[in-house]
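Example 4.3 (complexes with small molecules)
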Amino acid sequence: MIISVASGKGGTGKTLVAASLALSLKDTYKVQLLDCDVEEPNDHIFIKPDITRSEAVSIPVPAIDEKKCTHCGKCAEVCAYNAIAVVAEHVLTFPELCHGCGACSYLCPEKAISEIPNTIGKIETGEADGIIFGHGMLSIGQPMAPPIIRKVKTLIDKERTVIIDSSPGTSCPVVEAIKGSDFCLLVTEPTPFGLNDLILAVETVRQLGVPFGVVLNRIGVGDSKTEEYCAKENIPILLTIPLDTEIARLYSRGIPLVEGMPDWKSKFRELFDNIKEIVDEGSRSLKR
Ligand code: SF4
Ligand code: SF4
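Answer. The structure with iron/sulfur cluster bound is encoded below.
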């Protein structure tokens, strides 16, 4: 089963949930934790894996053979990302905007475009006390997170319970991380900002057709509007975590919640059992 952990808004405790879930399940299940928050991966701070492999991730970007180019402008015309421009007698390329789609080289009538690799980041893999771990890291200044997320997701081991930590928000990297999951946990907090971003996140997971539920973190910080929204929309709140200075202190020191406060392990196991039940019920109703 693949469970993704997402949140409409940053700083709601997504990593706390992903890491705690992995650590709570590792003694009973074969667990894999993949951190797809490639702009700011930090599950490794809590899981502390031994990293044993590192691999660069690159995308193919165009290189122009000026001797063959007739400056017809076709490449600039077909590029949907403005990553190539023809100015007078020159073709300019902007690798940082290129999505590596290959349209320009495919459609160049003079075959003047070849593709060269542009490194945009890396993936690292390792293990932490039985948890198979992987994460992606986008290089500084590189805006293209999805290719790295796709690379991290090639590590998915279907024999394991896979937990995917996604980026916050609802943009392309989040969609890339969540799609294909059996379930998505949306972590939010009961504040007006939390609710606003939760509503956007709910729209995203509904469009992806991924079953989902909510983890409500820092209960006590705001109001009851998020709970009212979930009740109205028939969205299950699967776990609540209180606003607690001890939890915040553990987090700031890189100590996983379930290690600093072991009582939480059973709550995260119960969370997993509830997710399993929802996923199993979903597959039963599909068969009916
Ligand atoms: S499509 Fe090919 S020939 Fe035309 S401007 Fe681009 S590189 Fe040059
Ligand atoms: S590979 Fe695609 S995105 Fe990159 S420059 Fe060519 S057409 Fe544009």
